[in-house]
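ARCHIVE CARD
Drawer: 12
Card no.: 0347
Subject: one protein chain, sequence and derived structure
Cross-reference: see card 0346
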Amino acid sequence: VGLRQLSLESEKLRVLRQAQAAFPNRALAHLALAEALALESNPRRLQEAARHLTATVAVDPDNTAAQFLLARVLHEQNKMAEAKQQYRQVIEKHPQAVSPKAYYVSCLQSSGESSAADRVYQAMVRQHGSQDATNVIKKVHQQQIRRSQMPALGQKVSHSISSKLLRKIGNEDVPLPNPEQLKNQMGDLIR
């Protein structure tokens, strides 16, 4: 990151913090700041992002975009119980959405709840088809690999998709992506 980019990011955060301070009861002010903070994947910034997302949801309980981002931030912070609760609420409000279910599967896997993750994944396959469900799961996993390798995080996050799970679709076993294979395939793209 060059100095120019760094100064632009700092300026963006300064302006967004001023907007949030000027409009503390506006969900959009909290959400814009939280999104900018969450993108950095810095533990301190993630904590601040979670605080602003919680405020956004308190001010605007129907803001599922904020709730979904809150779930993802909590998930990245390893606050699995809270993350699962937020994912379930988003899924309940938008049962047709694929991404929240994929992240929920990841969260369940990270929590050691493989059988629950399998049930949610199988429901995704029935609702959206095996190709769509598998592609979304792969994208979620790839994103988690990229974020885990960001230097700001300073530590590797656990890869949540278990290579041991096999999904039965009709008479055909369809494996979820193997985290290590994906990590190796993504290595060149991430560097």
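Annotation on reverse: Residues 18 and 29 are 9 Å apart (CA to CA). Residues 3-22 form the longest helix (20 residues).
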